[in-house]
């Protein structure tokens, strides 16, 4: 399940965020890569200890907590604090799969990476390449979204970032441990939740809505990991 969440931030908000981030010190992106994926990772990353990065990460999570589509699709239990990366001059990240478990720096908390998220912070017209390519059951899917948009996809996916051959690609990325571990179950719950909201807006029969809502919550109760 790939979900495009539009307009998490406005163009002006993204411009301000990106400008301030680019003025910060950046390090080799391999610092957060596993032993296998480090061989294929060529980018730069904002230092995890950056106060500005922490601030903007909190801003991203606060904005998403008010986003109905994100909350319904991800059903978040824990979220790894957002990190920031940049690609230019042919930098790329070859096909890899994210670590299943990530420890949050400085605390005794670990996150199971059920879902991966990328928030694009650069206008796609300003750079060539840089597509996020995700392999799923339908083959390879290429994602290059407008600045301020976010893509949510299964953490089990093999994926890569194509070389950036012109301009620069800046993005935030992070992982979500969901209340519902299995992607197919989350997908069914999302479809049902969207249908319930649509029928509610259409003032559908109360009894039918009650029955459908009951099925949704009973499935969530059966499948959730709390």
Secondary structure layout:
Blueprint: E1 3-5, H1 11-22, E2 26-28, E3 41-42, E4 44-46, H2 51-65, H3 68-74, E5 76-79, E6 83-88, E7 92-96, E8 101-103, E9 110-112, E10 115-120, E11 128-129, E12 132-136, E13 139-143, E14 150-154, E15 158-161, E16 164-166, E17 168-178, H4 183-201, H5 206-223
Antiparallel strand pairs: 1-14, 2-4, 3-7, 4-6, 5-17, 6-17, 7-15, 8-9, 10-14, 10-17, 11-16, 12-13, 12-15
Helix pairs in contact: 4-5
Short characterization:
Helix content is about 30%, strand content about 30%. The chain is built from 5 helices and 17 strands.
Overall structural class, as computed from helix and strand content, comes to: alpha+beta
Task: Indicate the proportion of strand residues.
Answer: 25-35%
Summarize the biggest pleated sheet.
8 strands, antiparallel
The succession of helices and strands, N to C, reads EHEEEHHEEEEEEEEEEEEEHH
Please, could you describe this protein's structure?
The mean pLDDT is 94. The strands form four sheets. Strands 1, 2, 4, 5, 6, 10, 14 and 17 form an eight-stranded antiparallel β-sheet that branches. Strands 3-7-15-12-13 form a five-stranded antiparallel β-sheet, with no helix packed on it. It has a two-stranded antiparallel sheet with strand order 8-9. Helix 4 runs antiparallel to helix 5 (206-223). By secondary structure, the chain is of the alpha+beta class. It is built from five helices and 17 strands. It has helices spanning 11-22, 51-65, 68-74, 183-201, 206-223, and strands spanning 3-5, 26-28, 41-42, 44-46, 76-79, 83-88, 92-96, 101-103, 110-112, 115-120, 128-129, 132-136, 139-143, 150-154, 158-161, 164-166, 168-178.
């Amino acid at each position: 399940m790939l979900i495009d969440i539009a307009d998490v931030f406005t163009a002006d908000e993204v411009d301000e965020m990106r400008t301030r981030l680019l003025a910060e010190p950046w390090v080799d992106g391999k610092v957060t890569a596993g032993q296998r994926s480090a061989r294929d990772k060529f980018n730069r990353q904002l230092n995890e200890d950056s106060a500005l990065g922490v601030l903007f990460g909190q801003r991203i999570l606060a904005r998403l907590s008010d986003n109905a589509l994100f909350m319904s699709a991800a059903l978040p239990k824990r979220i790894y604090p957002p990190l920031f990366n940049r690609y230019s001059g042919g930098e790329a990240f070859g096909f890899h799969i994210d670590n299943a478990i990530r420890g949050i720096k400085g605390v005794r908390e670990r996150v199971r990476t059920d879902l991966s998220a990328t928030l694009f912070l650069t206008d796609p017209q300003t750079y060539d390449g840089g597509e996020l390519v995700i392999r799923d059951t339908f083959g390879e899917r290429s994602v290059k979204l407008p600045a301020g948009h976010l893509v949510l996809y299964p953490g089990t996916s093999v994926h890569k970032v194509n070389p950036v051959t012109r301009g620069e690609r800046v993005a935030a990325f992070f992982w979500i441990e969901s209340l519902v571990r299995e992607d197919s179950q989350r997908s069914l719950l999302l479809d049902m939740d969207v249908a319930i909201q649509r029928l509610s807006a259409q003032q559908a029969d109360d009894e039918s809505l009650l029955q459908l809502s009951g099925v949704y919550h009973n499935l969530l109760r059966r499948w959730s990991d709390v």
